[in-house]
Amino acid sequence: MIELKGVSKYYQNEGNVTLGLRKASLKLNVGEFVTITGESGSGKSTLLNVISGLDKYDEGEYFVNGEETSYFSVSDMERFRKEYVGFVFQNYNIIDSYTVYENVIAALVIQNYDKKKRKKRALELIDAVGLTKQKNQKTSKLSGGQKQRVVIARALAKDSPIIVADEPTGNLDTASGEMVMNLLKEISKDKLVIVVTHNYEQAEPFSTRRIHMADGEIIEDRVFQTVEPSKIEPTKNELMGSKGQFYFASLNVLRQPKKTITMLLAFIVLMVAVLFVYASSFTNLSFFSYHPLTNNVYDTRVIVKNKSNVPFTSEQLDTFLNYGETKDIVHYDMVQEVYYRLSYDSEATFESGTVYLRPVSAFGSDNIEEGTMPTSANQILISYNMARNGFYNIGDQIYLSLQSGSESSYPFEITGFHKDNYDIVGVSTDFMNQTTDKSSPINNSYFIESAYRNTFYISLYAATTQRYFESSGLIYSTDVPVGEIHINNTEKSVFLMTGMTEEDFLNTTILLLFEAKTAYEEIPELKPKFVDGESKYWVIKLNPNTVKGEAFKVVKSSGTSQITLVGKDAANATKLYNRLSNNDEYLVMYPSNYKAPNQSNPFSFLFLILMFVVFGFAFVVINIITKNIYRAKNKDIAIMRSIGASKGDVRKIYLFEQTLTVTIAFILALVIVRIIEVYGIKTSILTYLGTFNILIIYVLFLILGLYIIFKYLNKLFGRTVISTLKGGSDND
Q1: CA-to-CA distance for 243 and 156, rounded, in angstroms?
Q2: Domain count of the chain?
Q3: In whole angstroms, what separates CA 251 from the centre of its chain?
Q4: C-alpha triplet 471, 475, 480: angle, nearest 5°
């Protein structure tokens, strides 16, 4: 039994107080068909909204089965609506983007109706209201009468003891109106049906009781058929559960394509931008090619040296080659550090210029301007600019030498032109590795031997412990100011001195790079003038002739103790560098990733500001778009609440929806970045970032999206269901 005692309701609008309901008192029982009539503004809809729990009351008391409701919290009132009340509205209040079937089954999902019986029950109810043919049609395409029948089917699906109907025939023709009233009368046999109408003549044949209102007061309460008072049994509803919440979330994504696409586009554009900005903070996206210790810098080159200075074994080389990131190996790395002469003839009478060698595996197909890659040791790839300047053509013969004279010349056939630097030529690794275990049949070891015959490194000697630190550091003769070479915590330089006689070497001021924790502590006579406190290595400038005793020893290079690993791309080269940097057996350097001291640190203040601005912009854009989209969903949210979904349920539904949107957008953003990588910049940004950093960006966007939705819903939940349905505030 429902009972109202002196219930009043007031509305406030811009400081003005309006009476909605004045001291209403009445008792209502199961089995009654109650018609509430009155002129427009008489308070009949207000009375209905208070009875149904859609609106709060300000004075008096409202009892349900003898229990006071004035102390009900928001969640208590939600539970009351879920367990007791089914709704039929004049404006239908169905979710237009859903089909007839989806609108009806929504009530069953909310009450966690047995999943195995859910579909059958929904179809039975749709058939009962005569809409079987329209069950898969969107409700926005239905006529007014059909929409109202959908609402009744949904109310029946909820199986509530109380059915409230606000002007259920107001927008219908006579025939449709009579059909709706007959349906309501049929279900009133075991329920309390309360109908608000301005057309009493249409409801009169079905009414067991009429309540007439004026100026917010009940002025007439006529009972035509008495029913025995009885306790109103609530519908036995269970909690919706996460499966039901996810069902609605996925349904919203699928059934509202325009809104979904708008959200997806916003997220995708911002995600792609953030991925590139974030990647550029710690990768060589600026194509910075300078390195103080080598001039032959390319983004797939990783230099590896045995700390023990012994040649790599075949097993070690095979291990490197079998790494998933490795494309090729140059067994004699120093061949790439020697200048060669390129000439028209075998005696180098007409020199085209001096060049560095690179393995053709370092060139991508997109780097070829014309022609094809070399496939054998006697073929070569030269710069397109050099070809134009020297009037070379594909198929011409060209000669490579270390010095003038036929004894050092080697003939090559030009197979193509590349787009890289003027002073770079590409040769096969068969040519570069010809004195190793993986040698080619060509007997031209002179190039390799000549490249190494004037190569030296320093061995530091600690007299106190009587041991050499042959791998403690590597040297380089250069004009780079000491102290401006900064090595970070993971980089280990592996460069060797080349192109000098021993006599020249001993009279040259050099830069010496050595490991502080070993060599310096045991060789006190070496006092560093410049120290990089962040580094594992110290850079010292000294003249070997000025160092007394046996603090150093000049040693000739031997064997393949230093190699180049060619990565499949720049990102894989970075992975190779990271993989081998942690191995104590090797010194490893990735020249392409070198950054001079005046370059910005990826975690610098400016970078942090940039990331803050980017994410701040993302927040503003997503916030604006989300609010505009969800304002259009206010009605859907209110409808969900009116048919029994709690605020917690609704919140989770839309948080799930946002999670789906962000996840789909992020997957599409990754696909777009990949397309840009392959067909645009030719750099693997995603591989640079790695799984961990990609997940960080995803999580940040997810948190951003969920926070905006959470904040918006909390504000919306501050309004009652009925004010949300009307599109105003509680005080309207």
Answers
A1: 23
A2: 4
A3: 22
A4: 145
Q: Which residue has the tokens 């197909």?
A: 365
User: Domain boundary at 177, 212, 237, which?
Assistant: 237
Tokens standing for residue 463: 């007299």
Phi, psi at 373, each rounded to 5°: -75, 145
Nearest of 52, 403, 328, 28 to residue 192 by alpha carbon: 28
For residue 385, give its domain range: 334-439
The neighbour count for residue 423, using CB atoms within 10 Å, is 17
- Of 608, 620, 615, which Cα lies nearest the Cα of 699? 615
DSSP state of 356: E
Would residue 69 count as lying in a domain? yes
Instruction: Say whether both 13 and 75 belong to one domain.
Output: yes
Instruction: Single out the residue of 29, 60, 26 nearest to residue 218, CA to CA.
Output: 26
Domain boundary among 237, 266, 292: 237
Q: Which amino acid is at 384?
A: Y
Is there a contact between 11 and 18 (Cβ–Cβ < 8 Å)? yes
370 and 249 share one domain:
no
Give residue for tokens 């729990």. Answer: 53
Strands (E), 360-409: 368-371, 379-383, 397-401
CB 580 within 8 A of CB 304: yes
Query: What are the DSSP E strand ranges found in 29-89?
Result: 33-38, 59-64, 67-68, 85-89
Q: What is the average pLDDT across 541-567? A: 57
Helices 257-280 and 241-255: angle between axes, nearest 10 degrees:
100
Handedness of CA 561, 564, 568, 571 (dihedral sign): positive
Enter the tokens of residue 522.
Answer: 């045991």
CB atoms within 10 A of CB 230: 11
Task: Give yes or no: residues 67 and 99 share one domain.
Answer: yes
Q: Do 134 and 223 fall within a single domain?
A: yes
Looking at per-residue pLDDT, the higher value among 302 and 679 belongs to: 302
At residue 291's C-alpha, the angle toward residues 288 and 295, to 5°, is 100
Residue 257 has pLDDT above 60, yes or no: yes
User: Distance between CA 457 and CA 708 in Å, rounded?
Assistant: 61
Radius of gyration of the chain (CA): 41
Q: Verify that 232 and 247 share a domain, yes or no.
A: no
> Does 357 share its domain with 275?
no
Instruction: Determine the average pLDDT of the residues in 409-425.
Output: 85
Q: Report if residue 265 sits inside a domain.
A: yes
Nearest 5°: phi and psi at 350?
-115, 105
CATH number, position 22: 3.40.50.300
Query: 348 with 265, same domain?
Result: no
Q: Tell me the per-residue pLDDT of 435-493, one tens digit each, with 9 for 90 and over.
A: 444 433 334 444 444 444 434 444 444 444 444 443 333 333 333 333 333 333 333 33
